[in-house]
Design brief:
Shape: globular
Strand content: 15-25%
Low-confidence stretches: 1-18
Structural class: alpha/beta
Number of helices: 17
Bound molecules: ligand TNX
């Protein structure tokens, strides 16, 4: 029996390795857990039935798939009796250990997508869409059996809408792009020295004044609560949770320029349009500061059904360490009061974090290790691999390089658990921040984010053993056709053999 089991394990390991080899005709990003090609093609034609039994959400996922396949194939699908079908099913028995997992079966006559949740079903549609590789298989899907589920539960991107503001349509486009590679979290950095970006009804000057500034020129901007709710809704339809961040006690010049009474000298700060960090702090000895924070967390939590609230906590050079710890402890209590789980930048590890807290590593291991020792979990965003605002090399037309250049190979060739030297169970996942000091337009976003984020998505999703730079490059070349079709202006790194 033992021998039999180890043979099975060995076979499983080999098939995992095979699953992402560059020789395989099927190319999916991020690389699935297992793909078995069966050598035929399900041909697409206009007569095609989309069958989705169940909730409205399932119907909607089927609707998204239909629109997507129609746009990519140029076909207008018509329901007709006896025609072949794409069937979407929720089934609790499918991969019960994997809440976001799914199975796909493509035969010449039918496509079946199955999952135990809407998230899994949504990811199945994303994979199916990528199976349509017209140059390789013609207009249709290669027949195959796919089983897939993510390695980490938290797969995120962060967008800084403070240094430069991005409006609701930009955020929606960003959501579309990141949902294509099965990310499930969008962290919005909503307050910083240069701007406050979300309406708070009990403190209107935050946006009346703090919302009207950004880096350099420009009027800034902010989301009304209705607009923010619309972002949350749009994201949820695409299986993405919004994580709101209010950065404190540093990075708060926009607050201090909005309300005189929050400043120790009773005077408003000047608005700030430069990009230096670490100069501002909330007055941690003023009770009004805590009234503001409580109101802000209450109003934002009511708009965000997701489990997290990010309280920043980075680069507080103007706050004494013991003051910082006391302040963050008190703010964490408020987050709990509103039913949310705390995330903070890695410096938060110095406060009283516990097993429910998440410490977001960005500079190096040191703080994360302190957090881990207290039982906290880590969200991995090491700047040298993950920071999307870093330049690729000296020719990059925008971006910073305080940690060095981050070429496409450097963004891909690392692993969270190897980096931290801990097991996957101590890591919630991977997140890729885009700070926008030098990012002004959506084209700028696309250039810095793609293709690096695709690699991060694979690190967060695919089994460690199936990932390697050679296989990744060949899949990336094929994913490039998809980015081109979607009008994504990605960076053509000289390290990748683009067609
Ligand atoms: C560090 S990362 C920051 C940001 C800057 C970024 C620029 C972090 C938690 N703080 O305030 O925008 O570097 O790369």
């Amino acid at each position: 029996m033992k021998k039999f089991v180890s043979w099975i394990a060995c076979f499983a390991a080999i098939s995992l390795l095979v699953s992402c080899q560059e020789k395989q005709a099927i190319s999916i990003m991020p690389c699935p857990v297992s793909v078995e090609e069966t050598g035929k093609v399900f041909k697409l034609s206009e007569k095609l039935n989309f069958k989705a039994a169940g909730s409205e959400e399932v119907q909607q996922i089927a609707g998204f798939l239909k629109t997507d396949l129609s746009q990519r194939s140029g076909l207008t699908f018509k329901e007709s009796e006896g025609a072949r079908s794409i069937v979407l099913t929720i089934d609790q028995a499918v991969l019960p250990q994997h809440p976001e997992g799914y199975q796909i079966s493509v035969t010449e006559n039918q496509v079946t997508l199955k999952a135990n949740s809407c998230a899994g079903l949504f990811y199945a549609t994303k994979t199916l869409s990528q199976l349509m590789q017209i140059q390789t298989f013609g207009l249709g899907f290669p027949t195959c059996e796919i089983e897939d589920y993510p390695r980490f539960a938290y797969r995120g991107a962060m967008l800084d809408v403070c240094r430069h503001f991005f409006d609701v349509d930009d955020v929606k486009r960003y959501i579309d792009l990141i949902s294509d590679i099965k990310l499930n979290t969008l962290h919005l950095h909503l307050s910083d020295d240069q701007g406050w970006r979300i309406e708070i009804k009990s403190w209107p000057e935050l946006t009346n004044i703090g919302g009207k500034c950004q880096v350099g020129e420009g009027d800034g901007g902010f989301y009304t609560q209705e607009q923010f709710a619309e972002i949350v809704r749009y994201a949820a339809e695409r299986q993405i949770t919004i994580v709101p961040e209010i950065d404190m006690p540093g990075h708060t010049n926009a607050v201090l320029s909005s309300y005189a009474e929050l400043n120790p000298d009773g005077k408003k700060k000047e608005p700030y349009r430069d990009i230096k960090v670490g100069f501002s702090t909330l007055d941690t000895s003023n009770e009004l500061t805590y009234k503001l924070i409580d109101d802000v967390i209450r109003e934002i939590s009511a708009l965000c059904p997701g489990p997290y609230f990010h309280i920043g906590g980075d680069e507080c050079n103007k706050t004494e360490k013991d003051e910082y710890v006391k302040f963050m402890n008190r703010v964490m209590q408020m987050v709990h009061k509103y039913g949310k789980r705390v995330i903070g930048w890695e410096e938060l590890a110095n406060a009283e974090v516990d097993s429910e807290s998440i410490v977001q590593l960005w500079r190096g291991k040191e703080n994360a290790v302190i957090g881990l020792a207290k039982g906290a979990k880590v969200l991995a965003s090491p700047a040298g691999h993950c920071y999307l605002d870093m330049q690729y090399d000296s020719t990059s037309y925008i971006g910073l390089h305080w940690i060095g250049y981050v070429e496409v190979d450097k963004a891909y060739n690392w692993d969270p658990s190897e980096f931290l030297e801990v097991g996957d169970d101590r890591i919630v996942g991977v997140e890729s921040p885009l700070w926008t000091e030098t990012v002004v337009t959506f084209d700028d976003i696309e250039y810095l984010v793609f293709p690096r984020l695709v690699g991060h998505a694979e690190i967060g999703w695919s089994p460690r053993e199936s990932r390697n730079w050679e296989g990744y490059q060949s899949r990336l070349v094929r994913y490039a056709s998809r980015m081109e079709a979607d009008g994504v202006d990605f960076y053509r790194s000289p390290l990748v053999p683009w067609k």
